[in-house]
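Issue: ligand-bound run for zinc ion - logging full I/O for the record.

Environment: standard queue, default settings, no custom constraints.

Inputs:
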Amino acid sequence: MAPGIDYSRASFAQIIRAAVDDLTSRGYQSEAQVDYWAMLIREAARRTTTPNHEIENALRKHFGREYEKVINRLNRVERFGLASIDPMLHAEIERRIRTAADLIKVNKTERVEQTLSRFRGWCSSVPPGGSRATDKREVASHIAKPTQRQKFEARRVAIDQGHKLAANIEEVVAIHGGAIAGVWHDRGEHDSNYDARKAHLARSGKVFLVRDSWAIKQGLVRRGAATYMDEIERPAELTFCSCKYKYLSSIRDLPEDWLTEKGREAISH
Ligand SMILES: [Zn+2]
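Outputs:
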């Protein structure tokens, strides 16, 4: 074991380097040697990854900010009606926190296990007398990579779940506020760096109807005049989708041939 390193405080990268050094210089000695390093790597991984209780706190803050942003985008009339749907919105936030926390925790466990299995796999390939030919830096980085990517992946999950939260809250608020349809918008329309889904990009600008909206119930819009929103996936429902609806609440915003006789009459006044 390398002298001068306090293994209880050493960084994850230091432990991996020390393990690779030990194996390459002394060679594979025993199962116990490998178990010892695996134990230290697991401990160091635990220190370098975010503890579970902090994952949840961080998500709570992140989603709280996302929620504020959505609410601030709403106009005053829409905000006025929020109190009555408050429980629904909070249930949605809690659901997102729970989903994101679970995804991140599972991912974290898997990534640490991948690091350990890469380490054990490599150990079994080291000749008994050690090896001078090993590119230690490359080996260490290959072993460390899954665990090191974990924080990056956790951020991606938080961002993705944040989009889903925003889309679902906008939907709840819009429908509650009398939206009768929505225009699908793909971020790829104006952001060429965004990896848009072809089908979503093709859908961009198309209008979809809210099923059983007040306008349909009052017989102003023809039932089945267009595809209903619940017949296709929601914006941001698929992984890393940043699509959005621009909600419409006036029958004047719909193509005239979607309206009934009564609807056409209503807008002619
Ligand atoms: Zn999309």
